Amino acid sequence: MEIVIKKMLGNSAAPMDLLLEADPSEQNIKQYLKKGTVFLAELEKNIAGVMVLMPISPASMEIMNLAVDEKFRGKGIAKKLIAHAKQACADQNMDFLEIGTGNSSLDQLALYQKCGFRMKKVIENYFIVHYPEPIFENGIQCMDMVRLKMKIKKDS
Ligand SMILES: CC(C)(COP(=O)(O)OP(=O)(O)OC[C@H]1O[C@@H](n2cnc3c(N)ncnc32)[C@H](O)[C@@H]1OP(=O)(O)O)[C@@H](O)C(=O)NCCC(=O)NCCS
């Protein structure tokens, strides 16, 4: 089974159901879809995963959203999407790739560190201030945002 990563040409057809699995705020998603680039992971003609990549400074890109359809999880699709984001950063001469996740997102924190991200800071109460409903995962309330960052190695 070959996973193919494709850049979407227009973001209006981005798979909202899947994007909502990574970010419960449709309003937030619509904001970053305006400026971001959407990548789809296709597996045997199914949309198996999605990622939104957006510049946040002249030297940095951020993965704003990353989600894999439940049916296709555990097959390395998220790792492939992150590898694709690293390459896109290198191609655009960016220095850093960043991502933010919740204190309660334990599997995601494992995944991101396996891919080379390092924890840089914590934005306290981010999810309490920005989301109307309390979020729980792994029996833990999601309150703080953990910011992770990696240096992009460019081909010389
Ligand atoms: C987080 C998510 C994107 C991972 O996607 P995925 O394609 O299943 O991830 P991968 O197969 O590339 O797995 C990479 C790592 O994730 C972890 N992982 C994946 N599936 C897992 C599972 N079923 N249970 C526990 N850990 C798992 C493992 O650490 C794995 O590393 P390994 O290959 O060394 O074992 C997916 O679970 C998802 O869409 N979740 C809901 C949305 C979300 O939380 N997005 C991130 C918002 S911050």
How do the strands of the widest beta sheet line up side by side?
A: 1-2-3-4-5-9-6
Number of helices: 5
CATH class: Alpha Beta
Tell me the span between the first and last alpha carbons: 33 Å
Number of domains: 1
Largest sheet: 7 strands, mixed
Which second-level CATH architecture applies? 3-Layer(aba) Sandwich
Low-confidence stretches: none
Which sequence of SSEs, written as H and E, runs from N to C?
A: EHHEEEHEHEHEEE
Instruction: Sum up the overall morphology in one term.
Output: globular
CATH topology: Aminopeptidase
**Structural class, judged by helices and strands?**
alpha+beta
**What proportion of the residues is helical, as a percent range?**
25-40%
> Nearest-angstrom radius of gyration?
15 Å
Summary?
The chain is of the alpha+beta class.
Please characterize this protein's 3D structure.
This is GNAT family N-acetyltransferase. By secondary structure, the chain is an alpha+beta fold. The N and C termini lie far apart (33 Å). The strands form two sheets. A seven-stranded mixed beta sheet has the order 1-2-3-4-5-9-6, with helices on both faces. It has a two-stranded antiparallel ribbon with strand order 7-8. The chain contains five helices and nine strands. Helix content is 29%, strand content 37%. Residues 21-22, 66-68, 73-79, 101, 105, 107-108, 110-111, 114 line the site of coenzyme A.
